[in-house]
Amino acid sequence: MYAKKLQSILRKKKISTGERIAVEKENRKYEGLLMPRIELGDQESLVLKLDNGYNIGIRFGPGVKIEKSRTHEPEEVKEEEEYELGKTKKRYLEVSFDPKKPPVCLVTTGGTISSRVDYRTGGVYAVSNPKELLHNVPELAEIVNIREMVTPFTKMSEDMDCFDWRKIAEIAAKKLNSGDQGVVIGHGTDTLHFTAAALSFFLRNLSKPVVLVGSQRSSDRGSSDAGMNLICAARVAVSDIAEVGICMHGEPDDSYCLFLRGTKVRKMHTSRRDAFRPVNDLPLAKVWPDGRLDKINPEQKRRSEGKVELDIKFEPDIAILKAYPGSDPGVIDYYVRKGYKGFVIEGTGLGHVPTFAKKSWISVIKKHSEQIPFVVAPQALYGRVNTDVYTNLRILYHEAKAIPGEDMLPETAYVKLGWVLGHTKNMEKVREMMLTNYAGEITPRSLPETYLY
Description:
Layout: H1 4-12, E1 20-25, E2 28-34, E3 45-49, E4 55-59, E5 65-68, H2 75-80, E6 82-84, E7 87-89, E8 103-108, E9 115-117, E10 124-126, H3 131-136, E11 145-150, H4 162-176, E12 182-186, H5 192-202, E13 203-204, E14 210-213, H6 226-237, E15 244-249, E16 257-261, E17 265-267, E18 276-278, E19 285-287, E20 293-295, E21 309-310, E22 318-322, H7 330-337, E23 342-347, H8 362-368, E24 374-378, H9 391-399, E25 403-404, H10 410-421, H11 427-434
Parallel strand pairs: 8-11, 8-12, 12-14, 14-15, 22-23, 23-24, 24-25
Antiparallel strand pairs: 1-2, 1-5, 2-3, 3-4, 6-7, 9-10, 13-21, 15-16, 16-19, 17-18, 19-20
Helix pairs in contact: 4-5, 5-10
């Protein structure tokens, strides 16, 4: 609620939330929709949604004039949404798809790409109708024929788990095997790379593109990256790159997107639009909204015939542990007592854990490594684990029998370990499978041009 004095003025002028108003302050005039006040915001400030999609706050005080606007709303604003007494009514554009365009399935799972601003708190919330994605990006109809939109659940990605990954994989396999030329998956960005890695292992013999896409800004913000990311994702979905990957902004401007391999990509910034970068790998391609697609990485699978095989066996009782100065290896015993079946350790440098420290990890790992796998991935992210440079490394990998994670990202190693343990608990077989490249997660050598791409 706005301050009582401000409410009184709005009532006298018969202005309700959602109406178009004009506010004049210090010889400057602003026009837009009067929004509900942010619950945690300033009660003395009016919140206006401008025609460009941005919201501004105008602090009320002496000399500020408020009137109903005499100009009409732009058509796109009218069409986007109507407000009445603080309640949002949405009308969606009717998007017609051409059956002659390549058929593609759109899967929506929630996240910022499927979110709008919550004007009670100033945060964002998931939209209830996935058609809003099409409403905001009607250009998709010029690229693909979306025969079906599937929403298995609506969650922010930090709330997902391996059972959600399985649902997404089942839908993707079904749609690809029933004639769709590609699958586009809308998803929250926080754990987008976990899901991309999981689908990379769950979808075997992949012959068509599976494109995960998110956005760093909600779709109703003027700076949203959702539209361009979706357009570029659609371009990839009809390309001949038969890979699971993430398609997001390649730089802060609205110039191009990068399509990044699902096992070699990570969110590297909390808020930048180009937050997703390849790690220890080159991008699969640069993708422009107009359809231009430049392939960068020569090592990529091409579209082909054949059925996708679904392989969603997964052991959920695994954990990621971080080695750091003074870290207590007793956490391993705790997880073992809880019934955990495997661990990924984020090792320092070339893959170390505290070895001759007061709290050495070596004895605890040795105690369990005959029955439980310990995979070490580099917490430095770039580069790879080396088992032989230092004495401490030799002790960890040759005496304590830890499994080197090569140049896998810790998140990818975590997903892969769960997938491997879903197939076998035999320690020799686990080691063999963890050191086998299944989905581009292990590169034979580190290339200098992949660093900080």
